[in-house]
Queue: 3 jobs
Job 1
Amino acid sequence: MKADKNLLSGSTTLLVLSLLSTGDKYGYEMIAELDARSDHTFTLKEGTLYPILHGLEKEGAVKSYTKEADTGRTRKYYRITRKGLKALEEQKKEWVEFSEKVNAILAGCAPALA
Amino acid sequence: MKADKNLLSGSTTLLVLSLLSTGDKYGYEMIAELDARSDHTFTLKEGTLYPILHGLEKEGAVKSYTKEADTGRTRKYYRITRKGLKALEEQKKEWVEFSEKVNAILAGCAPALA
DNA sequence: TGACATACCTAGAACTCCGAGGTATATTAT
DNA sequence: ATAATATACCTCGGAGTTCTAGGTATGTCA
């Protein structure tokens, strides 16, 4: 029912790669950052993000390593690889094309109802 | 694997309602029109469109009627209802918000790889 | 010591889309 | 005439994504 949920579909990987392109991050951090930077529009659930990260690692788009935080807590960081950067560029291009075409269709539709 | 396929997800209803806001259309026609107006980016399959139309009719967003074409062939036309127009406006707003936020995230990511 | 936040994970349900099939009629080519 | 193609509708089952709802473990704070 939530349209946002459906719209989100397909762009999550793009968003995750985009986040990682600015520096290594761990899962929990990505969720918080996406939520904050999107004004609570993209609130990924853990059950969504972790499988995605595992998938990205399996295809070699990211690599993980564990690191101890100042707090003593162990975190699993992800770093984007060259392959991941290339995938990011491709998906970015696809997104731009896609959104422009949706906007073109919408532009041709009738104005708001009375 | 096709990213376009995933991106399409969630916006199909929006696109269909948008098409119908410019006039009554039948299924086959919508597929052709979407394909043409998007430069073959949105090539809806029949197995996708027909269930969507049936769903929209069940929620009262569209109404169908059959009409004989000049060719003698019977077609099933769909007309958008007031409820459908309202849904269109809402989904349009959601789409604009969503795409702006994706662009904002992308704008904050690293530039293209060397 | 108990509650909460952090931090990771998975299995199963729900939803969307497509592939692949089916039916039927009109047009076009042979 | 008849075979092939295009039009036009439909449905079922599989594949892919995301969420729900759980689980585990540790650090912090009251």
Note: Chain A has one domain: 5-107.
Job 2
Amino acid sequence: MREHDHSGLLEHVREEMPSDEKLQELGDLFKVFGDITRIRIMYALHEDEMCVCAIAELLGMTQSAISHQLKTLKDADLVAARREGKTVYYSLSDDHVRSIIAQGYEHITE
Amino acid sequence: MREHDHSGLLEHVREEMPSDEKLQELGDLFKVFGDITRIRIMYALHEDEMCVCAIAELLGMTQSAISHQLKTLKDADLVAARREGKTVYYSLSDDHVRSIIAQGYEHITE
DNA sequence: CGTTCATATGAACGATTGCTCATATGTTCA
DNA sequence: TGAACATATGAGCAATCGTTCATATGAACG
């Protein structure tokens, strides 16, 4: 399968393309959104902060599973943690989370 | 680890939460964005349609690899295909793609 | 201190993912 | 029809992912 010619187009597109590093970061970010448990957690935190065991109870899942996922979300700067005694409260870290989910929701409900 | 009480909060959050089906769809959608090759393809199609072999050449990847990923993108309604003779041209199917990527990009470059 | 509650984390295991390779389908043209 | 080109697709395999289980850390309180 020898390719036909598109030399002109390619050079132009190449200029518009962000760096590999940025693209990788972008992919890694969306990967975090690509799991139903993490989506559920983000929806749970949509209105207010919550502690780990409340989220676990809400979703009917293990504390451990939730904690692992919260770590993933935190590493991606999607949630922030605040400690109060024994309890750790998590909240959405900024409005990008809400925007991204909202855009996705629009797409699937069109 | 017996949990402490949060009966009030949980009921409220449960009402705001979309159905499992919607959440799964949402997760599946973002999963598609969660791969650098597919991100690259969407960026390539950002301005104009392209045929499969042009994308393959642009990204320095196999025609087969690109074709598989285009199928994934098409199944998620993120790209549309148009045939012209032997060639198949792909393009972004709507502006949600651009919006979602733009929001993600904002998040990582804050 | 030691106990209890809340959370975090490492190892392990099944499930999913993205690529490659081989091959099939579809289109044009001689 | 048959050859050449463009694309699609199925099987297989290494790598990654999400959970579980066991255990560790950390804070409050007697």
Note: Residues 1-4, 31, 35, 37, 61-62, 64-65, 68-69, 72, 83, 85-87 of chain B lie near DNA strand C (CB under 10 Å from a C1').
Job 3
Amino acid sequence: MILIDYKSRKPIYEQIIDNIKHLVVSGVLQRDDQLPSVRQLAQELAINPNTIQKAYAELERQGVIYSLKGRGSFVGSSLQELRTVQQKELLEQLAALSTDLYRLQVPQDEVYAVVQQVYEQQKEDEIHD
Amino acid sequence: MILIDYKSRKPIYEQIIDNIKHLVVSGVLQRDDQLPSVRQLAQELAINPNTIQKAYAELERQGVIYSLKGRGSFVGSSLQELRTVQQKELLEQLAALSTDLYRLQVPQDEVYAVVQQVYEQQKEDEIHD
DNA sequence: TAGCTGTATTATCTTATCTAGTACACTTAT
DNA sequence: ATAAGTGTACTAGATAAGATAATACAGCTA
């Protein structure tokens, strides 16, 4: 369900955040679904409970989950809501990247070609699922 | 010539690397042009010489500059060479970002529209230089 | 020779990340 | 009521990356 790359330069708690967001955005986790408890997930991933707690706290701050003392942690954002937020973030990244591409004089056609190729490849990969 | 954002989460030595690469790619610094000395640049930017040395060492490892003991450090890569390398890096970033955009179901048209808008805006900005 | 260069070394400081252990308040099921 | 599970808070320590500080050495050049 959740995979951690311990060799990555990205902190573990950030990987957990990204991972859970992805589970929500892909529909695996739905609103009000219960997340694994802090201690349980810590044991599964063989990491310290404090690290899980840090990830959950940040997810709660962002409104992705909510936590109830004694009850557990639950999904607090719908697929659509989170998807919209993340789409906006990605499009901002795209704009920044496009600026760099322009300044390095990469032709607009070439940018389109890369996007086109990725989209086609992704479509193909979906068929072979 | 070189600006450092001390509040950035990006390490200073990485900012220096990016900054010098940009000066080469934009044609301000040309092949065999001499760079400021380690101590001189350290004084200008009010940072430790070791930090400059770290940046220069990495730039030399990448072939962007070369250093001669007792002489100084010089640009070792032509505008075209470095531009090609950086274009390739950016296109790889674009491919990765496109994969995320596809997975978040952002329509291809919308991706194109953002790129288009940035390119047009950049062209306009150039006129008003 | 004096004063620049690059380069190397050692030590110290700070910060972020992660671990470890403990404690407390709350909920739920028995 | 009790036990076991939840979230939450706190302190302490380990580790690594980044940056600073001071010093030293080798090579070049005026």
Note: Helices of chain A lie at 12-25, 38-45, 49-61, 79-103, 108-127.
